[in-house]
Amino acid sequence: MEPKYFRSLEELKIDTRATSIEKPAGDRQFIFEMQQELKKTTTASRRDFLKVFGFTVASAAIASSCEQPVRKAIPLLIQPEETVPGKASYYASTFFDGIDYCPVVVKVRDGRPIKIEGNKLSSITQGGTNARTQASVLGLYDNARYKEPAIKGNAASWQEVDEAIVDQLNAIKQKGGKIVLLSGSIISPSTLQLIDEFFAEFPGEHITYDVLSASAMRQANLKTFGKAFVPDYRFDKAEVIVAFDTDFLGSWLSPVAFTKQYSKNRKLTDGQQKMSRHIHLEGAMSLTGSNADERIQLHPAQEKETIAALLYELGQLDGRSSGKPVSSPVDVKKIARELYSKKGKALVVVGTNDAESQLMVNAINEILGSYGNTIITEVHLKLRNGDDAAMERLVEEMNAGKVDALLLYDVNPAYDYPQKDKFLSGLQKVALKVAMPVYEEETAALADFICPDHHYLEAWNDAEVKTGYYSLAQPAIRPIFNTRAVQSSLLKWLGKETDFRTYIQAYWEENLYEMSENLLFTSFWNKKVHDGIFDSGSKEAMDGSFDAQAALAVQQTVQAGSADQISLVVYPNVAVGTGKHANNPWLQELPDPVSKACWDNYISISPRLAGELGLEDNDTVDVAGIGELPILIQPGQEYKTLAVAMGYGREKAGIPATGVGKNVFGQLGFANGNRQFVKFDVALEKLGGTYEVARTQSHHSMEGRAIVRETTLADYKENPISGNEIREEIKKHLKTLYPKQVYDGFHWGMAVDLNSCTGCNACVVACSAENNVPVVGKEQVLMAREMHWIRIDRYYKGDENNPEVVRQPVTCQHCDNAPCENVCPVAATTHSNEGLNQMAYNRCIGTRYCNNNCPYKVRRFNFYDYNGADTFKGNRKDPAEMTTDLRRMVLNPDVTVRAKGVIEKCSFCVQRIQDKKLQAKNENRQLRDGEVVPACAQACPSEAIVFGNLNDKNSKIAKYFADDRNYHLLEELHTLPSVGYLTKVKNTTV
Amino acid sequence: MYVSPIREPLIRGEKNYSQVTKDILAPMAGKPSKYWYMGMTLSSAALVFGAWATFMTIYYGIGTWGLNKTVGWGWGITNFVWWVGIGHAGTFISAILLLFRQKWRTSINRSAEAMTLIAIACAGFFPLIHMGRLLLGFFIFPYPNTRELWVNFNSPLLWDVFAISTYFLVSLIFWYVGLIPDLGTVRDKAKTKIRKAIYGFLSFGWTGSVKQWSRHETVSLILAGLAAPLVLSVHTIVSFDFATSVIPGWHTTIFPPYFVSGAVFSGFAMVLTLLIVARKALNLEEYITVNHIESMNKVIILTGSIVGIAYITEFFMAWYSGVEYEQYAFLNRAFGPYAWAYWIMMTCNVVTPQLFWFKKIRTSLVATFIISIFVNIGMWFERFVIVVTSLHRDYLPSSWVMYSPSLVEVGLYVGTLGLFFTLFLLFIRVFPVIAIAEVKSVLKSSGDHKKTAHHE
Amino acid sequence: MNNSYITAYYYDEEELLEGIRQIKEKGVEILDVMTPFPVHGLDKAIGLRRSRLTRVAFWGGTIGALIGFLFQAWVFTQAYVINFGGKPFFAVPSFMPVTFEMAVLFSAFSMVLAFLIYFKLGPGAKPIIYDERSTDDRFLLIVKAGDADETKNIEKALSQAGAEGIKHKA
Amino acid sequence: MTRTLINLQGNPRKMVVLGLMALLLLPFMSLRAQTPEAEKNFQQCKACHNIDGPKLIGPNLAGITERRDTAWLIKFIRNSTEVIQSGDEYAVALFKEYNNIPMPPHDLTDEQIIDILAYIDNGGKVADEYLAQMDEAADQDAELVAKRQAELKERDLKLAELERDANRNFGTTFIIVLIIFLVTLFDLFVTKVIKATFVHKTVVLIALVVIGEVVYKEASALGRQQYYQPEQPIWFSHEIHATQNGIDCLYCHSSAEDSKSAGIPSTNVCMNCHNQVREGKITGTTEINKIHEAWNSGNPVEWIRVHNLPDHVYFNHSQHVNSGKLDCAQCHGEVEKMDVVMQVEDLSMGWCLNCHRTTEVQFAENEFFKSYERMHEQFKNGEVKKVTADMLGGGDCMKCHY
């Protein structure tokens, strides 16, 4: 990403000739036209000509008039300077949805944001993203967005809404009532200041309610450090990582940043010979657990005693008193020795929302000298600052009628609060209920006023995710609907006339400007808007004291838990998370990185328990009164641990989310002031029915084939070829009668470092967004017809009850001797002189022969018209409402929208290759290495995917291909793939 | 003329030429029988089912089939190969047996050839309907166009287009050239003016002059000479669809001979199925005798055994090659989730034809009829096993899936069966089922006893 | 110009051959013979030349093969050079099936067309039918008639040669 | 080049520096004058001014430098309204004389204005030393002029021919011939009115040839719209704008150089000139009023697209105009001669391919092509004389289809 393309609307507004007045209509007009255009179906901006050619031209033209439909070209009345039709611009912004934080760059084409990329300037995520960030652009075009303000369900104008609300707020103020602003974690410093101002004016309080809270950790830190905070973790500094039930690569605190750090420490390229060792202890099978070097099954009930035992052992090793000896089901001595041997470079984390465990882990980390090395207490992570206890208190107060007004911002307790009924009954007693949601949701449906918020791509915002790490969000599009930022609403109700952008600017000028070296504030501001990032370097004041007493006290009292009881773990998956994005079809169709299931939640059960209970996949059960849910036998699951994903069972959302899966928030408990995500001693009842879960992979063993090649770190150090020995043998047998084709100029190649890939699925969503990959819906996934161009194969190895997990992203291998090309009768798929396996959709007649003959099975057939590209109504299959005009605005105009009956597949993002080549050509220079980045590689938080020109001997890709670890998938078939894989290395050495 | 002393006469009953004409033309005259109407009703019902399935496929898309990301060809291509195989008998009988001067072919070649043509029409339907974008199917022909883009001559599917269409056209002219003299006979025997006019038009002005006969024989012989390698090439090329691919279970050099013998095997079985019924219904027992049936059964033993050996050879090669994918593919065939299909195939194709070693079974019409149907079923499963079980578990286990057909796919298959029988029933009403002139020419040498010409 | 002729028929091909032999001996010119099926030895008896259709078939096939092969070669190496799966552009083995099919197709069609054209056979062609049973069971012999005497002699000769239904047409 | 200079205008400090530099360089500047660039810039003036000849909206420019001094002119050209408002007598008089129509402001540097003035002084001709560098067509040589005229005539004829071709009605021919064909066949087999069959045969043969030709022509035109010439909502003549007023294509279709699409000018681009120009030569005010109407109502003009590529084709204007250095006319024909725009080429894939096969790329000139090492070697050795787009993969599917 060339930073020089990052441009802010604001900056450019200064440049435009009409400086004095706000542009009339501007982008709104643009969107309006876009919609007008959409209605005219065959206009220039949609590339769905296939539909015309697929049927109408061929038949209708012969049959009747032989005339083409007239196409209108409607220019803008006034062309905004910053939008050149047909050219993309990029704006820096920040994605934050209350859970995930990610600085991003938004690609805007013809006025529409169409793709999210990671912002490489961010020191936190360094250009990495995750699936939800990638998918967030589709949220902008969600059919279920609130489109205008409403009073009691009736559309109203902003003025009416404001007047009514201000009246009521003032009335409450008069009588001295209580106003509560209930929000998710807010990391925007300006917003927080604004909220303070709000409550300076109005009586009441701001309560933060997080579905995934870290309140136990805050409690624990309050005890040990005297301050309730979440510290900053440095997985890249840790040589030994021991994690108790912590899905830090998937959902814990800041997964994108952690994945970046974690993978950096596990790369064996560029001469690096070291990698961290990761020991994972958990009951359910998580994404992080499946990536561990050593995964130890631990019943959730025994976690606390194991931590206590570890604390004791480490104390022993360090020669200090650390409580009493505790027996544990795990060989903690070994772990303790390993940890202690890397003192100062070790890290122990626990994800359980339990203050006692957190306390003991604090003590462990203190013994290990982690603080200041792998855990930074001076930098606080501002995510997950919800207070579980305060939320409980609020519900009590609501029921007691003590709350007069409830302002809901970025929360949906009517859906995700465990004691839903209690909340609902309390809500009825609140006189003024104002919801400020983006999408249709359960809570807002009960509110008196709906003041729809902007989507983040339409709004100004700022963020301080960690102490001193700031970022800005700027609108990439004028609001599509009649919405207003929550902050603007608050300002309005406060009676201030400033808009929120000015407010942020003022905040930055006041608080952050002084930390910069720039001379003028405007240039400082413009630069920050342009970059989207500002690292001030400021630190929190910590007195450096550490109080281990509380932890030791806890250690003394730990009771042994029973592993006999069946426990239920409720976890957020990488797709829909807490359910906020459940209405995003890309995420619904995203296969879970472990189970490969999508479009549903289900009860994961260990093979042993399932065998004992006589259960098979898809049998329905009732666990703890959730209701009928199918089971999915999950190898690696602890014997008596069940797991179920939260975020499903939405009742009032759009078409894709409503009615998918079951709401399991009711299972969350509350203990010691913290929300509990594990429920012990649950009843499991077999219901006898079946319910099919759609999975994109149905066979889970490699059948002994050398598909994912593996070695251990020790073996690798001894012989870098280890694990890949078979390649030499294969190469010897590669003989051909034909001369090899020569690729002059460019020969594109991709390498995947299997050691870095965690299977987070960001690439899958990025690819879907970039290449207009259709969403097919559950029914079609059940028929094995998903369309993803890149998939992450996941295989289990070894013991079914505690298998090793390996993953492999597979896209089109762009074989130089491609079997698919030979068999296409109509020459629809051929080889380019740049080594690309090309697919000309419009030539394809759909014999599917290429698909059959592809050994990698990466070709996808459009069994139906999933994208609305066909004029033939009967062909349409759109279970997720992806063909509405609004949804279709996300389509990338540079990529053909495929019609029914054609094959499609990964193109190595040829549109990006061509774009960069053209740019170099226009700039009269050679293409640089690393300039062309396909969507998957761009999205990857662990930089597992490398792309480049194989002909350039100095390129990164050429070095990867020359690596001893490199191999090609099914190389023995002599297909000469352009995709290489670097063997997976596991650090099993102690 | 040389008469094989041990050979039983091919034509039963004491026939003279006039009688032959009358017997063979009998089914064409008068009103069709009750059975004909019943057959017609059944087969047109099947045809309507097929029409519905065709509509579904075109209007809603290939999505109405049971195919998926891994198994791109299912029943459609299975049926295609099955029908092409059946379409081998006619031309094989006419051409190869003509070259080998097998006289017994004369009674059956006409109907076998007609069956061939209909079977190829049924076969050709499948590659068309299985296309995702049927309406752009014309892309497959190398016609000059403004794109300046031709076709891919490397693709076995393209070879198929050429092979199948050439085979159809050559079989058509072979069949029609053979029909011309008989149509002349029909014309001259016609009672009504319309019939005379129609058959006069169709008979191309045949007179039966000595030079016409002489050149007609030359043409037939050369056509047979051309059709013989053609018939072998067609299934060879169809087998290339699989043999030139990289999929384990498909990528096998044994396929061409194995497919050709399989085709003849299934074709003969289908001819038997049809003729055993037809000879009874049309009172042609004296022309299509047990002798004919027995001769055909012998061909079935031969080709069935070749097929059986081919099955075993495949297994041996899988083991001997040492390629793990190939080995797995074959183990998966025999013991995987589709093992039932494999064992049906083995039973029907390898075991049942061996019963024909017993003369009693070989000459029993009922047994032959039943076994011929078994062979048809077995051969269908052979194609199913090759197409589906090879695809559903190929190289990367992550993509392994199961496949089961949808009602639409079943409908298409039933529809082609309907088409096949409908056209065959029409054929027996409008054309002489047996080559009259050819039968007459062997009547003396192979007839029961030739009565001296009686003077009328 | 004498256009008259005499028709006679036999019920048996061996009698016919014998009759022809006898008549030929007598020097009667045989115009044509119509038979319901090809009678072996008849063409020799009449004295037909060897058919030239074989040559038509050969050249038709050769031209077909050449067109097939050259067209494919032109498309792959001249018209639009495309890399298919790393195969060479002049991919001779790949051209074989189409070349073969084209050869067979051209050969068969050219020969059959030649046959039809030579005999003026075709849909709707109207032949002269001397005897409707000549396609059924009668072997029809047509000989040239001379003047009245000669005709009588020929008729007699025919009769002696076992022919039936002797008719004279002027 | 021009663009960067314009952009600098936003910065007052740089403006001052530039102005000072321009003043310093004034004496030397005349040397640089009358460049082809001036001719290009003069297109803006041409819309309203003639150098000699009939008066247009503004005064004729011949002898302008004698009438007024350069500094005044620079000021006036850059922003005439300002000068008028400042009460400059000459300017006010001029304003009154020309019906109170102000001259629109121009974003030109001093350097550029001086350049234009020199160009005007030279009678609207580029200085001799630049002529050599320019297009041959602009040469004063009488012979060349004649040749060019002949060429133009030929093109006109070709255009007329194209138009005739476009108007040919194949449908009627087809139906008539088909009827004759069927009647002949009917007669041959059934009615037999004409006894001589060779008549039938000849007619059938001719009919088949004609039908074949029509089918071929129609089939290849299927999905194409060569000679498409729709009536536009506004009678806009490229002839008047591009030829008579000499406005460069890129003035209105500005994004052709750096974007995928050439762009249809937004109404404000029209208004740049039509703010002042309110009457046309042919249609008077009727057509121009439509622009004003659109401008005032805020509804953009719905033009009808003439050149349509199917959506599965990716075509990038900047690739062809900017790095390919192609002339617009190569694909669009002589649009500047068309009153109503017509699609001249068939825009078929074959047509694209043929151009890719014959057109040379800027192989030696553009650094980008250095990546093609083998080709460069061969080019240097002289093994390869010219490098066409096709040789670098210009015939690959993925160049246009993705």
Describe this entry's structure for a reader.
The complex is a heterotetramer of chains A (990), B (456), C (170) and D (402). Chain A has 990 residues and is α/β, with parallel strands linked by helices. In chain A, the strands form 13 sheets. Chain A has a 7-stranded mixed β-sheet, with helices on both faces. In chain A, strands 29-21-26-23-25-24-30 form a 7-stranded mixed β-sheet. In chain A, strands 12-11-10-13 form a 4-stranded parallel β-sheet. In chain A, helix 4 packs parallel to helix 24 and helix 13 crosses helix 15 (420-428). Chain B has one domain. Helices cover 68% and strands 0% of the residues of chain B. In chain B, helix 3 (75-86) packs antiparallel against helix 14, helix 4 (89-99) crosses helix 5 (109-129) and helix 9 (255-281) packs antiparallel against helix 14. Chain B is globular. Chain C has 2 domains: 5-36 and 136-169, ACT domain (Alpha-Beta Plaits, 2-Layer Sandwich), CATH 3.30.70; 53-118, no CATH class. Chain C has 5 helices and 4 strands; from the N terminus they run βαβαααβαβ. With 170 residues, chain C is of the alpha+beta class. A 4-stranded antiparallel β-sheet of chain C has the order 2-3-1-4, with helices on one face. The model of chain C has no long low-confidence stretch (mean pLDDT 85). In chain D, 54% of the residues lie in helices and 0% in strands. The radius of gyration of chain D is 28 Å and the shape is extended. The chains are: A alpha/beta (990), B mainly alpha (456), C alpha+beta (170), D mainly alpha (402). At the A-D interface, helix 3, strand 1 and helix 29 of A face helix 15, strand 1, helix 17 and helix 20 of D.
Structural class of chain B comes to mainly alpha
- Rg of chain B from C-alpha positions? 23 Å
Strand content of chain C: 5-15%
Instruction: Please state the CA-atom Rg of chain C, rounded to the nearest Å.
Output: 26 Å
Helix content of chain C: 40-55%
Which stretches of chain C are poorly predicted, pLDDT < 50 over at least 5 residues?
Answer: none
What is the H/E string of chain C?
Answer: EHEHHHEHE
Helix content of chain B: 55-70%
What is the CATH H-level superfamily of the largest domain in chain C?
ACT domain
Mean pLDDT of chain B: 88
Count of individual beta strands of chain B? 0
Strand order in the sheet with the most strands of chain C: 2-3-1-4
Looking at the overall shape, the CATH architecture of the largest domain in chain C is 2-Layer Sandwich
Number of domains of chain B: 1
* Average predicted confidence as pLDDT of chain C: 85
* Uncertain residue segments of chain B: 1-5, 450-456
CATH topology of the largest domain in chain C: Alpha-Beta Plaits
The dominant shape of chain C is: rod-shaped
CATH class (first level) name of the largest domain in chain C: Alpha Beta
The string of secondary-structure elements of chain B, in order, is HHHHHHHHHHHHHHHH
